[in-house]
Amino acid sequence: MYPLYGGTLTIPPNIANVIFISRPQLELMDLIAENVHEGKRPNKEFHLFFVPHKSLLCQKKLFKCDLFPFDNDLLSMELSGSFKEFHLENDPTCLYQVAQAIQGLQKLYGKISKVTGRGPAASKVWELLERLNREEEDNKSHPASSVAIEHLLLLDRSVDLLSPLVTQLTYEGLIDEIYGIKYNTVQLPARKFHDSDDSPTAMSLNEKKQIILNSGEKLFAEIRDKNVNGVGPVLSKKAKVISSQFDERYGDKSVQEIKQFVARLPHMLATKQSLARHTTIAEMIKEVTDSSNFLESLQVEQEKSKEVVKLYRHRQTEHIYRRYDSTTATVTENFTSALHKVVDKLWLKTKTVRLL
């Protein structure tokens, strides 16, 4: 047991759980935050017990975080129930939280000059954001910052309910479809990553290996958005490059050349390990995607998608026809063709937007 002080908390490496016992005082929350965030904490879990009772103010001060960074280009609020709350339960609280999160970004990076959106929820978020901005200007509690974000695009999930139901065919997408990615990590059978010389024990047969997937890994950043059929050639090319780099250790070399090879060795070993890991994952995915069940399901899905596209084109064309004065103008074949092109462009724009 240690008294609570600020700064780095020295934790023995064999300790996996750290328990804080504290009175519900705001100044103590700052000390706890310092203890948790200072230094590296691999594989440590932190727990907090309030004595004699917990405080909502202390909880808000300690756990206030609107946006969680999952990658160098991805922030998430982790509001998994927001769609149900807004559209089914008519609870707009989540929209206010979104507006507050955007305002927090503006305090850091300056006011966003251009905001566009689509859908009823997007419109409400914009209205709330405008109100918060006006209140902020009246208070003038924060100085104006240089603008780093020029354009904000707000999309309501309800404008495209089909996309989440379609099978993803990228490398990262199929990992998520088959094994599930949560918080940028995936749990895979550990036995698949054993060396061929190892004999896995009965315990390791059910053991899971946790793998982190983000752009910090150069190889994953390169293949994550590729179609699964394009991953194999990339991995094969990388394997040849790594093999040729390791072959450089043979032959006569000067002391300087040996020194350069040794300096590159840690990076080469890390790349080799990354390559072996993603080769194994790609093989696991291929076993699934080559199965008859997967191919039949994908075929049915694509046929249904074509029907949806056809229906979308028909409805959009009807909508444009209704706005066109057919009593005084003749709809020619060229006009109909032009309508279809417009509708196709609208559909492509809708489908190419990556919604989160």
UniProtKB/TrEMBL annotation:
Top-level taxon of the source organism: Eukaryota
Pfam family of the protein (one): Sec1
InterPro entries reported for this sequence: Sec-1-like_dom1 (IPR043154), Sec-1-like_dom3a (IPR043127), Sec1-like (IPR001619), Sec1-like_sf (IPR036045)
Gene3D superfamilies cross-referenced by the UniProt entry: 3.40.50.2060, Syntaxin Binding Protein 1, Chain A, domain 2 (3.90.830.10)
BP GO annotations: vesicle-mediated transport
Family to which this protein belongs: Belongs to the STXBP/unc-18/SEC1 family.
PANTHER family: VESICLE PROTEIN SORTING-ASSOCIATED
Annotated protein name in UniProt: Vacuolar protein sorting-associated protein 33A
Annotated organism of origin: Mycetomoellerius zeteki
